[in-house]
Amino acid sequence: MSLWEYANPKRFMGWTAPVLPWVFGVAALFLVTGLVWGFFFTPDDYRQGSTVKIIYLHVPAAFMAINTWIMMLVASLIWLVRRQHVSALAAKAAAPIGLTMTLIALLTGAIWGQPMWGTYWAWDPRLTSFLILFLFYLGYMALWAAIDDPDTAADLTSVLCIVGSVFAVLSRYAVKFWNQGLHQGTSVPLATGGRTVSDVFFVPLAISSVGFILLFIALVLLRTRTEIRRRRVRALHMRESRR
Amino acid sequence: MIPDLGKYAAEVGLAYGVSIVLLAGIIGISWRQSVAQKRALDAVEARRNG
User: Which residues in chain B have their CB less than 8 angstroms from residue A61's CB?
Assistant: First the structure.
């Protein structure tokens, strides 16, 4: 059986139903463990004091803000190339989650920035590219809402997603492209494996990050199921109105 | 039980509070929409079959 079979709406509804509670459960386990460990059982940083505890929220949220858009890009490309409806609906389903993650990253960053930098906001490359990413999420969701025909909406939002990917990549690499601004460099570079964070902070951060990833997967599955149902209701309503 | 957050207690508390509210919000909204669409689909299908 082809892998694409799993993207058939009926089959998708079938395999996600039993999987979903487990993904939510494991996500909750990792999130609670990582955040409780980080908040209650890690020491203060010698320079940043207790504000270092914000890292367990800020870094995973920022990671998910960027990677949600990358997931939407892949789903959009699949839609444009293969016309798989579930992939377009998955991209649509992911956008509010990405918006939430971007907002968490921006707000926790601002709250962290005030005591460390002396300001909530600076037009720093990474901060600015994140703000633009946030606006792209809003625009993407508004475009879906503004167009009645779902296939046309999927086409146009896919194009917007491709354009917005430039800012998703910029958000990720802004601190490397422009070696200026207040924001520090990456603490955990995935490509090199090197990191500047002590194990004391890194282990709960890794657990919290896994929790954020699993929560994202659970929410995308749940929301995609909702979108499939919404589409089905719309189709049945249209069939009824033609009679 | 609550760790001593020193002079940054307000910032750390606010960061956790805001994040938990936003995470709970997206989970709650997603759940509510899921239940609403399931009910809507069940109602339309019941009408079609009945």
Answer: 19
